[in-house]
Design goal:
- By secondary structure, this protein is mainly β.
- The protein contains four helices and 29 strands.
- The strands form seven sheets. It has a five-stranded antiparallel beta sheet, with no helix packed on it. It has a five-stranded mixed beta sheet with strand order 23-22-21-29-24, with no helix packed on it.
- It starts with a strand and ends in a 7-residue tail after the last helix.
Length: 406
């Protein structure tokens, strides 16, 4: 429904009084020119000007309305006047908007906050140049946390990451209207690099460039889903903006057949490390993996990867050093002093990439989240959704994962 708010101007009131005075003077003949008819303007006066029309403001939300949906985009219009300013505010903050070039309308670019009382103050310049102001108020519908989905963004703001790091947005409640959300999720970089979103699930979307990031790239991520309907009565809870940068190109090439890891930095081979990978029954995956997290020490228990306590393969080690996760399923690169005799010679691990504590510490110190580890030499492929497995998907197939392509 549209609310029309009539604006009053003291200046126009004075003009109306003056017009009455002129009409009275004409009726009694005083001051009139000879031969003038009753009601005529005096000779030479050029006729009586009509009073300027009173500006009116229209709003797409009723004044005093309650339970207004949070996805409402406030619109203000004016007739017989030019809008010069619109301020929409609540305790939650201002609502930004855009004024049309002709001053006839204003449209919000921000949606509303739940359970907030808003005040809309509009200033209009009438035909006579006099500014007049109107005020309307309304209250939005309150939402509980079960009706709002919060976007978590990785990398974190200010982080420096490796060239393989995808942008990962995780929602704590499912998003059914993926296209509506994706339209408001933007990744920009300097220098610019082509890339695409891919939805892993209703709660998670990844963005990666077509090729590995260029070293030194600066990236900005904007997730503008606040109050956007996610479907099923759920709305985006908050807008998020995150900036990060890409460090040197660290690419580690693991060959399970030769039991070696070649460590490259910006294309230069720094070292070749002796390693061990998964033995029969626990084969390490081949494919492109990305370092997901780092721990200087970590407890590793076989039960977390499906090996029951009491099994001949069971293990529980409290202080594994220099652990770097490369799959969600439990593959790590880490120090393995118990297998030094096999490193460079045989595969004896339960799937992790083991090396001496000294080598693992050296690698740990130079590594970042997002550094790339390329594995070859086994017949077990890396699953695309097992951690940051985005690089194991052909580019054309990756793009098809965008909600805007379907």
């Amino acid at each position: 429904m549209s609310t029309s708010l009539r604006l009053r101007s003291a200046a126009r009131a004075c003009a109306a009084v003056s017009l009455v005075a002129v009409l009275v003077a004409a009726c009694d003949g005083s001051g009139g020119a000879p031969g003038a008819r009753s009601g005529d303007a005096p000779a030479g006066a050029g006729g009586t000007e009509a009073a300027a029309a009173t500006p009116q403001v229209s709003l797409n939300v009723d004044d005093g309305a309650t339970d207004v949906p949070v996805d409402t985009l406030v619109k203000v219009g004016s007739t017989d006047g030019r809008i010069t300013a619109v301020k929409v505010r609540s305790a939650a903050g201002p609502v930004r908007g855009e004024l049309s070039a002709d001053g006839a309308s204003w449209r919000a670019t921000d949606r509303l906050e739940p359970g907030a009382r808003y005040r809309v103050r509009t200033t209009v310049e009438g035909e006579d140049g006099t500014p007049v102001t109107s005020v309307a108020k309304f209250t939005t519908r309150a939402l509980n946390l079960d009706e709002q989905t919060y976007p978590s963004v990785s990398p974190i703001d200010g982080e420096t990451v490796g060239v393989g790091m995808p942008v990962v947005v995780t929602f704590d409640l499912p998003v059914k209207r993926k296209a509506a959300f994706e339209k408001r999720m933007k990744v920009t970089s300097q220098p610019a690099q082509a890339g695409s979103w891919r939805w892993v699930s209703d709660r998670e979307a990844h963005w990666r460039p077509r090729e590995y990031w260029q070293p030194g790239t600066k990236v900005s991520v904007s997730v503008g889903v606040n109050s956007v309907p996610a479907g099923g009565g759920i709305y985006g809870q908050e807008n998020r903006t995150v900036s990060f940068q890409v460090g040197k190109a660290h690419i580690y090439k693991v060959n399970a057949k030769t039991h070696t890891m070649k460590v490259f930095e910006d294309g230069k081979l720094l070292r070749t490390l002796p390693i061990t990978t998964g033995k029969e029954g626990f084969t390490t995956r081949s494919g492109v993996k990305v370092i997901m997290e780092k721990s200087a020490t970590r407890r590793m228990n076989s039960e977390t990867v499906g090996i029951a306590q009491g099994s001949a393969e069971a293990y529980d080690i409290d202080d594994v050093k220099w652990a770097m996760r490369v799959t969600s399923s439990g593959e790590f690169i880490h120090g393995a002093p118990w297998s030094v005799g096999s490193q460079g010679r045989a595969n004896v691990s339960h799937g992790c990439t083991g090396m001496s504590d000294a080598d693992a510490g050296w690698l740990y110190d130079m590594s970042r989240r997002g550094d790339v580890v390329e594995y070859v030499g086994t017949d077990r492929p890396m699953e695309p959704d097992n951690g940051y497995g985005d690089w194991n998907i052909d580019w054309d197939d990756y793009v098809e994962g965008s909600a805007l392509r379907n």
